[in-house]
Design brief:
This protein has 821 residues and is α+β, with helices and mostly antiparallel strands. 20% of the residues lie in helices and 24% in strands. Strand 32 and strand 33 form a beta hairpin. It binds adenosine-5'-triphosphate. Adenosine-5'-triphosphate binds next to strand 29, strand 31 and strand 33. The site of adenosine-5'-triphosphate has 22 residues, from strand 29, strand 31 and strand 33.
Length: 821
């Protein structure tokens, strides 16, 4: 073991270069690091002053290296003759107007040796999209330099554009920090493949977080000048924040002192406290279509936790189990010994647009473990024990009290794309059939509409008629208030699409058409139906969407001869829908209220992924916090309509929560929202289900096809959730985030029951012995008893948790994302 209290830095880079671009003198930054001006630098080409220009920003910036920048109108290369081995390359950008140049016109690509690191990149757009807002940006990559190779960094301005950079940093790193070769297989989440990181990929760091702690500055890193940010912006709920504990960290050969600074391991988030079990969850916006490497760092520093099997948890990545039986003591061999675990996941890109998705990381306590006796031999696999005298969950809760240290480090990595330069750069151009940004006014056929051709594709009427054999009835797959929906094939049959054609006699019309395009083209999410484009020729109003092969959710519940969907799959569909709604309510710039959530507006793709459709009625929520509703004439569908909205004509996102509550009961009971010929008290599903829930007879109206499958705890939770969504008073309904959590918790309860062999086929009656104690409530869901907490309550809770925070706390994380964007 190495003593961590010694004054020396654990790592001294062999190469350490700081180049202040656009500067002719040497400068010093806020961390007192010394930068060389690039004008007469050995790393710049000798003709630098003829091939590029230097500029000072139009805004007064005091910080080096942002004061000056170098501007390139043609290809430009810096060359760094560094030692062989992996290097951090950090590029500093301050995207403002330089000289006469409009920063919004700066698009460029960046290559380093064989890798395309940035592809048609706009620093301005990247910074503008960041939340919270920032003024400058550092892009960090890891590139391996081979023996006798020079590290070249080349800027390639896009056509009619220019590139710029403010500073370049090159720092070497320990050979095997991330590149761990064939001896270290990394599990790939979702299949049984192993992943190996050798010298071939280049990586981009996306997130490096000090979980539960403050920012750890570059000078407090272990010698590589890595910045560790707090994780608050990425936690899903602010749970598990646990006071910093100043203990000595025992680094080991497998996790040497340079891995991460000590403070990273002594600040933390932990999983529990008294009777609460915290699920720890983070979400990270990432581009779809790449592999991601997550490096999670852990260290058990709670002195009471010394045994393996004492604190065991499950790690989920993107809702898939990445690791069962996670046990830090077992992994590391003892307390205060840090350890890290790597996982790779592919974030798929179903629509081929590399749109942003949230990458979820969650850790849940695993309930089946109890500690080994203190003298027990150390074994590598966790031992499951069943001690009938001690409730199984009690052991875990007992050991979690007070909070042990689980550090999560998602090290944001990215993965690579190795491309040949010319091809990589050529591929940045949009497909010819897509209307380019600058080409908005070109269509000759459109009737002067101001539709957003930059955001989605505009089709000609010929393309649509040929896709649908001139709107042949055989191609009709549905009909709604808007008109017929056709199935069609575009791009020479390569893509199947759904084509909605506005019926001129429809009472929905031009306004919905515009709304749908305006809304959907700005909203992108795995759980929203993607709008591919539109056609507005010859006064036609046609919308083109991704084709959802399995049709509507309703078709799989009732009124069709389709195979009934199993309960767990129904839960997954509800979870997906809740995610889509959550994105609408909170994920985009402004709250979007769908206004017509119902089972025919939830579509299912080939893989049963739920997607919300039909945004023709959507409304944007209020802009400022002073107003919490939008006044509007009532729209929506019979049986799903929020009674409060109906009465007051004031729309909030809780109206969607109400409609979603109806969908939840539709899914549970497999019956329509309204059945007119039933006895009066049963006509309206919302009222009838609430009535049964309150009387404890909900199990009697469950769809007979799933009655045997559904675990009693799961039904209880699900019923409670549906009931809370349908509360009369919108304030008392949970927010969609809590609904989402409730659904995930329901799924967890179902899975736990099934794992114990009691949920599946075990009968729908009372809870069998060994099922989870029902009182074990998830802290992430609304209170179980009486009225649910209001939004105000939630805010109070949140601010209490924040104010309770002590300065130093942690789980930390790094994520990296494949490059080549
Ligand atoms: N993207 C799609 N992929 C596959 N089928 C679709 C798609 N969009 C719509 N459909 C089918 O077309 C039907 C009609 O859809 P549409 O959204 O026009 O109406 P609706 O939501 O059922 O009713 P309304 O417009 O009155 O709310 C749907 O029920 C579904 O069967």
């Amino acid at each position: 073991a190495v003593d961590d209290n010694s004054p020396w830095l654990p790592y001294t880079p062999t190469d350490y270069i700081l180049l202040d671009c656009g500067s002719s003198s040497n400068t010093t930054d806020a961390s007192l690091r010394s930068w060389d001006g690039d004008v007469r630098s050995q790393f710049s080409p000798s003709n630098i002053e003829n091939t590029s220009s230097n500029a000072t920003s139009s805004k007064s910036v005091i910080q080096v290296p942002y004061k000056t920048s170098r501007i390139f109108h043609s290809q430009f290369t810096y060359s760094f003759p560094v030692s062989a081995g992996p290097k951090f390359i950090r590029l500093y950008f301050y995207p403002v107007n330089y000289s006469e140049l409009d920063i919004t016109n700066s698009f460029f690509s960046l290559t380093s040796n064989d890798y395309t690191l940035l592809n048609n990149f706009s620093a301005f757009l990247t910074v503008s999209a960041m939340k919270p807002a920032v003024a400058s940006l550092i892009k960090e990559f890891i590139v391996n330099v081979r023996d006798n190779q020079i590290l070249n960094i080349t800027f390639w301005p896009s056509p009619n554009s220019y590139a710029f950079v403010n500073g370049i940093e090159v720092v070497s790193m320990p050979e095997n920090l991330y590149i761990r070769g064939n001896d270290h297989p990394i599990p790939q989440v979702s299949d049984n493949q192993r992943f190996y990181i050798d010298y071939n990929p280049a990586l981009e760091t996306l997130y490096r977080l000090n979980v539960g702690g403050n920012e750890v500055s570059i000078t407090n890193d272990t010698g590589m000048f890595r910045l560790w940010s707090p994780d608050d912006d990425y936690t899903y709920e602010d749970y598990g924040f646990t006071p910093h504990r100043d203990v000595a960290i025992r680094y080991r050969q497998e996790t040497p002192p340079y891995t991460a600074p000590k403070i990273i391991y002594t600040t933390r988030r932990t999983m529990g406290n008294d009777s609460l079990r915290y699920n720890l969850t983070w979400k990270f916006p990432v581009d779809s279509g790449f592999y991601y490497l997550l490096r999670l760092h852990f260290c058990e520093i709670q002195l009471e936790v010394t045994l393996k099997n004492q604190r065991v948890f499950i790690i989920y990545i993107n809702n898939q189990t990445a690791q069962r039986g996670a046990d830090v003591i077992q992994w590391s061999g003892g307390t205060r010994i840090p350890v890290f675990k790597d996982y790779v996941i592919m974030v798929t890109d179903p629509d081929g647009r590399q749109s942003k998705q949230d990458l979820w990381l969650a850790m849940y306590p695993e309930l089946d473990f109890r500690p080994d006796p203190p003298s027990g031999p150390f074994t590598l696999s966790p031992q499951k024990k069943n001690n009938k005298e001690t409730p199984r969950w009690a052991v875990i809760i007992g050991t979690v009290v007070g909070g042990g240290s689980v550090l999560v480090l998602i090290l944001g990595f990215l993965i690579f794309r190795r491309r040949r330069r010319v091809k990589a750069l050529g591929s940045t151009q949009p497909k010819s059939s897509w209307v380019p940004l600058s080409d908005r006014s070109k269509s000759t056929k459109t009737s002067g509409s101001s539709l957003p051709s930059d955001l989605c594709r505009r089709f000609s009427l010929e393309e649509i008629t040929s896709a649908t054999c001139n709107f042949d009835d055989n191609f009709v797959i549905g009909a709604g208030g808007f008109g017929n929906v056709y199935k069609g094939h575009i791009d020479n049959g390569a893509t199947t699409v759904a084509i909605k054609r506005l019926n001129p006699s429809s009472n929905q019309g031009a306004r919905e058409f515009q709304t749908e395009i305006g809304m959907l083209s700005k909203l992108r999410h795995l759980h929203l139906v993607s709008l591919i484009g539109y056609c507005n020729d010859n006064r036609e109003m046609i919308l083109i969407y991704d084709y959802m092969a399995r049709g509507t959710l309703r078709d799989h519940l009732y009124k069709s001869k389709k195979q009934p969907i199993p309960w767990k799959q129904r839960l997954q569909i509800c979870i997906g829908t809740a995610r889509g709604l959550h994105y609408l309510h909170t994920g985009a710039k402004r709250t979007t209220i769908h206004r017509d959530v119902k089972s025919t507006n939830i579509l299912l793709d080939e893989k049963w992924v739920a997607k919300i459709s039909d945004f023709g009625l959507s409304k944007l929520g209020p802009i400022d916090a002073g107003h919490n509703h939008v006044s509007t004439t009532v729209k929506g569908s019979f049986g799903y309509l929020d009674p409060e909205y109906y009465k007051r004509q004031q729309l909030t996102e809780k109206s969607d929560v109400y409609s979603f509550g109806v969908v939840l009961f539709e899914v549970l009971c497999a019956r329509p929202a309204i059945i007119l010929d039933l006895p009066e008290d049963q006509v309206n599903l919302a009222e009838w289900a609430r009535h049964c829930y309150k009387n404890g007879t909900l199990d009697q109206i469950v769809d007979p096809n799933i009655r045997e499958e559904i675990a009693p705890e799961c039904l209880k939770k699900f019923g409670e959730l549906g009931d809370s969504c349908l509360r009369e008073n919108g304030f008392k309904r949970p927010g969609i985030n809590n609904v989402l959590w409730g659904l995930e918790f329901s799924l967890q309860l179902q899975e736990e029951a099934e794992m114990k062999g009691q949920g599946d086929g075990g009968g729908g009656g009372g809870g069998g012995g060994g099922l989870l104690p029902v009182a074990l409530a998830s802290p992430l869901t609304p209170p179980l008893h009486g009225e649910s907490m209001t939004d105000n309550d939630e805010n109070v809770l949140r601010s209490m948790t924040n104010s309770d925070k002590l300065k130093n706390m942690t789980l930390f994380s790094e994520i990296m994302n494949p490059m080549g964007r």
